Predict the 3D structure of the following.
Amino acid sequence: MPERILIMGGSFDPPHKGHRALLMAAARELAPEAVVLAPAFQAPLKGLPGAPAGVRVAMLRALVSGLPKGLRKRCSLDLSEVRSRRKVYTVETLRRLARRHPQAEFHFVVGSDSAASFHRWRDPKALRRLACWWVGARPGAQAPLPPGFHRLPGRFPDISSTDIRLAAATAGKWRKLVPKPVAALIRGRKLYGLHILKELEATLKDSRFQHTLAVASIAVRLAERHGLDRQKAALAGLLHDCGRCMTPKQMVARARAWKVLAPRREDLIRRAPKLLHSYLSAELSRRRFGVDDPEILSAVRKHTLGGATMSPLDRLLYVADAVSEDRTHPGAAGLRSLAFRDLDAALAACLEAKVAHARSAGSWLHPLSHSLWARTRR
């Protein structure tokens, strides 16, 4: 009988209880002689900061330490992908393992999402030749199995690493989704935006910090509803008001020192210096928090005055800032409801409300906001 080797690969960013349940179910079904966990070097993230490869390896070791003794003793970590310091395709890893264990029978286990995207993996035909493929279905998974896949018995937790990162970044509930040793590493190293949360909580007034959390939370929900990137929406929401750590006088000094290119900057300085905060927030996002994604920086920059052109993420953050759950003014609930139905209509309605408020209060309206409002009325 050939040796059975069970393999699980992925970013493990972070490893969670869904990974553990999948691994244990596959081990029960297949009774492998060995279990190989192969963490990837490069985690494919777009917005929120992910954990470095070495930290993900430490978290994976922490997950393994909590497995039943019999399974734990059969587990080993294959760090070849991590040590390569490059993107490695699964077919490369399987070919390498096949050369190392020429008589072995390989079984690869994945979750529902990975199985659904299997046709986009590098060389699916070769992958099927190299291993037998198993999938654990999450609750509600309806997609048929790809050819050659086998379903593991049972149902598996509806948990994803992306959801954990989003929950951590927006002060949501995430700790029960990962084993306790993994949660301790995440908290101790302030991963997944926790370092940003800590700094914002320390530098913003409490009401502003609570508003920040509310904007980040609704930005994620709006992104999911309208098919935009949730991680970029979360990070833009978190950072949109980080410039509010400054007084108006400090904003003016910093805007001049940094040569911030705010439209009609001197008018802003003279008439409404607080409105500089969105441009300073974008600068702080880049300088202090290391954000270099132009889409995120653009959304942060434009969330108060808008812009001559506005991307979907720009519009989403502008609306999220206006309709977050902490907004209790008359009409806020209606605007929130509209935002989930039609983002462009919500943007127009938010601008209409802003213009009406400026007129009733006799306050100055920046020409950029006025021109954006005028365009939405055409």
About this structure: The chain has two domains: 4-189, 194-376. The domain at 4-189 is CATH 3.40.50.620 (Rossmann fold). The CA atoms of residues 216 and 237 lie 4 Å apart.
